[in-house]
Design a protein that fits this description.
- By secondary structure, this protein is an all-alpha fold.
- The protein has 10 helices and no strands.
- Helices cover about 75% and strands about 0% of the residues.
- It is globular.
- About 35% of the residues are buried.
Length: about 250
């Protein structure tokens, strides 16, 4: 089993800087919503195409992992995600979003954000962290990289802070971190970047419901709701790290 071919690490880092700079200009330009979405949409398409080239394609491995214990942990993580989705009233909230008066706006926002954020965080950034940490954290490279990239993904949501919405944004940072871990898991478990993109779009289509549910409950209850997802994905990642070490697969 081999990891897909990628650009050199310095070239990937330069791409992160370039895409981050362009995104900042688009996001903080204060343009009308229609123009913003068109710019963001074009940028998302451009980003995913160049990122796929930089990371060697949508697959993580040439062949999907095959191990009974890992497959069982895979199922556990998926059930934990389904548990959260049921609490957030899916698929009812998904149906409501698609039939609201702003359904086109919601769909456009969800698709552009899902495509760019997943290609950037689970594609490019995840790859860079793996390659830069494989010596220092060689026994649990994937676990470390998933946690760090998910933490950065959560902190990234501070771009939604407007000065008087700290609590909702902090909640968003928390569940973004949790979902970020699950997206890392889904990329590895299903051996494609397409799965986390689809899941991200699906969640963003229900962003209003998700925000209202997570901000209306006690923070401790919220932690207990997301804890199974966090723990199951971390346990899965640790198992994959152990499996890769035992089969002499180098993540590069």
């Amino acid at each position: 089993m081999k990891v897909c071919h990628q650009w050199s690490l310095p070239k990937q880092v330069m791409l992160i800087i370039a895409l981050s700079t362009i995104f900042s200009f688009i996001n903080f330009a204060h343009t009308p919503m229609a123009m913003y979405l068109s710019q963001y949409g074009i940028f998302s398409v451009f980003s995913v195409l160049i990122i796929l080239k930089a990371i060697g394609g949508p697959r993580f491995f040439y062949h999907r992992l095959s191990d009974k214990r890992i497959n069982l942990l895979n199922l556990l993580s998926c059930l934990s995600f389904l548990f959260i989705m049921l609490i957030c009233k899916t698929p009812i909230s998904f149906w409501v979003a698609l039939h609201s008066k702003d359904s086109l706006l919601i769909a456009a926002t969800a698709v552009t954000a899902g495509v760019f954020e997943e290609s950037f965080f689970r594609g490019l950034l995840f790859s860079v962290i793996i390659r830069s940490s494989r010596k220092s954290y060689r026994h649990f490279t994937l676990t470390y990289s998933a946690i760090l990239s998910s933490l950065l993904f959560g902190l990234y949501h501070f771009i939604n802070f407007t000065g008087d919405n700290l609590v909702p944004v902090m909640v968003q940072v928390g569940y973004a971190f949790s979902f970020g871990l699950f997206f890392c898991f889904s990329k590895i478990a299903f051996n494609t970047l397409l799965v986390p993109i689809i899941l991200h779009v699906y969640i963003d289509l229900q962003a209003t419901t998700l925000n209202s549910v997570t901000t209306s409950i006690n923070w401790l209850i919220g932690l207990l709701i997301f804890l199974p997802l966090i723990m199951s994905t971390i346990i899965y990642l640790l198992a994959v790290d152990k499996h890769l070490k035992s089969t002499y697969v180098t993540v590069s």
